[in-house]
Amino acid sequence: MKRRKVISLIGLAIATSAISIACGQQQTTIDPTATNGTTGATLVVYSGRAEDLIGPMFQRFQAETGIQVNVRYGDTAELAATILEEGQNSPADIYFAQDAGALGALQREGRTRPIPETLLNQVDPRFRSREGQWIGITGRARVFNYNTDLLSSDQVPNSIWEITQPEWSGRIGWAPTNGSFQSFVTALRKHEGEERAREWVEAMQANNPQVYRNNTTLVEALGRGEVDLGLTNNYYLFRFKAEDPNFPVSYHYPTGDVGSMINIAGVAIIDSTDQPEAAYAFIEFMLSPEAQQHFAQGNSEYPLIDGIQPPDGQIPIAQINPPDIDLSDLEDLEGTLELLRSAGVL
Amino acid sequence: MTINLKQTLSSTSYLSTRRSHPPIFLVIMAAIVALGMALPLVYLVIRAMGIGLAPFIALISRPRTIQVFFNSIGMAFFVTLLSALIAIPLAFLIVRTNLPGRRFWSVVTTLPLAIPTYVGSFALLAFAGPRGSMIQILLEPFGVQRLPSIYGWAGVIIATTLFSYPYILLTVRSSLQGMDPAMEEVSRVLGYTPYQTFWRVTLPQLRPAIAAGSLLVSLYALQDFGTPALMRFESFTYVIFLQYRTSFDRSMAAALSLVLIALVGLILLLEYRARSRAAYYSRGSASQHQQPLIPLGRWTWLALGFCILITLFSLVMPLGVLFFWLGRGLRVGQNPIELITMMLPAAYNSIYSSGLAAIISTLFALPIAILAVRFPSRLTATLERTSYIGFGMPGIVVSLSLVFFGANYVPWLYQQLPMLIFAYLVLFIPQAVGTLRGSLLQVSPSLEESARILGRTPWQTLRQVTLPLVRPGVISGAMLIFLTSIKELPATLLLSPIGFRTLATQIWQATAESVAFTQASVAALMMLFVSTLATLIILSQERRIKNAQPSLTQLED
């Protein structure tokens, strides 16, 4: 009885001290100190991009400028919702999104801060907000990925219209909840008109497409031969090949259609930030040749400033001719979602 | 003239006082939890008020939405049914029979709970997907080019059942352990076969445990998003997620979540009906002797085969796939030691946060369970019901509600560890409440009443009489919360302190945008390792307690 008393007392003590330690634990988030100058400042970044791909750049930025970078990694859409729920108390200074739709959503809710002209002008107007509220950092091209065991290179269709033919029934994979896919459909609507776009979506839907929850699972399934061909972004394949050089998938750019580069990964400055200068320095660094080079060579993404080599094995930017759409035009995105819903895709 | 002691006792003011005045410290603790539960609800109501009524009506009356709604219900039903069919025999075999290696099966049949859905479903696809999966490759020499598609209903039911049947297993196990064997012995003495005894005596006594476990499984199946997404099954949560992912419409998502809560309420009502009002404690003297195990004889091989089959699919299969990915990475030259070292801080954080969550949640679940069982009233019943709200909602919804309240009302606590632990509490406390209720129902109130009559205060009664007797429930509850917190993802991503990695976030990091399956498999294997250790430690506590059961004589100390 006595021993049990002692044990339960010890347990209670441990529990209490654990709680008090947890409550007293210093957290590692921002400590808004410097208002002038940027050294010694801390930037809080909410990043929808994966740490593997963007982390090294954050660290290099930190090393070069002395600005501390604290990153919360998460899902692009969930982080956008978080920033909106946090309101003006948001600790976030920078939001790094995987697609333009999320950036546009923040812009629409008025949570973004204008980016200086000097930074905006480094990037083609097609890849930044018209109102200067966000800016693209790298581009992602839409591409066909196909299983090389099931399809030879001359069997691969050349156009998105070919894959609506009955012979492709059940052999095509797509990920309709993905932001890049939706941007692609938006571009289709703008470039070829509402009617044609609806025709394509409905024809695809009638052709028994295999639905995947994101690009990663789609390409993984391609590797297993579950589907013959997939509509996805250009850079996934190279990451799979890095894990497994014998990955039996290759890529093909459809020609003559709606263009290839459709979406961007980009940055917005949150309106409640207290570190605007540091935020500008951050964007400047991400658009610097050093960073853009890393994105191109390391991640196989498309650089958005002039004069950088495109990723190895990818079609150069000059040959990619996306239509002139404002990626954050939300009336466009709403229209796309409506189209996809009415066709039963979403 | 016989004196009916019970009647005399019941006429004393003591008992009538006790029925209307639960100890104040219990009420305060329960009120804190109630406040926590209210937060997600309040958030949802606030957000939902921002929708346009017309678009909302349009959305929920779409044939697709209605179909998806009923799909979800059907899926939850079949998952629960299948889980019960697996868990009840397993629990019985492990606790009541002389199955060889019972301790081993105890552990391995609980472990599937430690496997996150996003890992388990992915593994199932890599194992049994239509093409290119392990089974298909094995069968290819026999001319099998394509397996029947596991996507859709089959996949989602199998994947969800395999990794959530332990809910029912744990509650039934702790109920079997706490059951008074006298009734079954009497049944045998009266001439019933073991089979008949099981159906007529044991099973009815297991009803609250089965109901509690089924409640957990069905709610879990309803709010899960990872498995339906991978298995291409359109569940109702999918519709909610679409609002976040595509239209960035939090108001619509909130309104849909309220619909989900209405469904959760309905299921809670069903569970309430399923519990009979019967008493589950023995009215005679509490006999605490060890019940003799049922010899299986020639059924041993069948029983073993059943256990092996279930373990093969729920544990060996995901492990196998994880090791396969690991092996593939090693072949390409990745260094396993480096990867493990990289994951160590995350492992430590996982253990720390989940451990804290388990202790604190179980602590706060006790008052709710005690109030609900010993002081039944509308209020306490409502309190117990509302604790399930957090569990029945998608993690992202609970997380956003805490983000809203945290950032705007308690910013000094926002994105600190206590808030994350609080999130785990809101999400997982019903697991502990359920198991505690089950255990508490098996404790005769007369033991506590005797303690009070002998002069103990309510607090002393709680500590010296009630707590020791509900240990099986406490242990199951704490274990459940540990296993589920360690794999939790949405709340951890949004509410943990910046830089606070857990094994779950590492797995997600490795597979969301990047393609680092090797990294993911290392993190997942470490998570399983930690979970196994925790399960072993906690189960060993169970054994020691069995050997040190309190008896009535100890009350006189």
UniProtKB/TrEMBL annotation, chain A:
The keyword Aminoacyl-tRNA synthetase does not apply. The keyword Thylakoid does not apply. GO terms for molecular function: ATP binding. InterPro entries: Ferric-bd (IPR026045), SBP (IPR006059). Residues 1-22 form the signal peptide. This is Iron ABC transporter ATP-binding protein. Belongs to the bacterial solute-binding protein 1 family. Keywords: ATP-binding, Ion transport, Iron, Iron transport, Nucleotide-binding, Signal, Transport. It comes from the Bacteria. The lineage of its organism: Bacteria, Bacillati, Cyanobacteriota, Cyanophyceae, Oscillatoriophycideae.
TrEMBL record, chain B:
Keywords: ATP-binding, Cell inner membrane, Cell membrane, Membrane, Nucleotide-binding, Transmembrane, Transmembrane helix, Transport. CDD domains: TM_PBP2. InterPro entries: MetI-like (IPR000515), MetI-like_sf (IPR035906). It is found in: Cell inner membrane; Cell membrane. Its main location: membrane. One of its GO terms (molecular function) is ATP binding. It is a multi-pass membrane protein. Pfam families: BPD_transp_1. The chain crosses the membrane at residues 24-46, 66-95, 107-130, 150-170, 209-231, 251-270, 301-326, 351-375, 387-409, 421-444, 465-486, 516-539. Belongs to the binding-protein-dependent transport system permease family. This is ABC transporter ATP-binding protein. It comes from Limnospira platensis NIES-46. The lineage of its organism: Bacteria, Bacillati, Cyanobacteriota, Cyanophyceae, Oscillatoriophycideae.
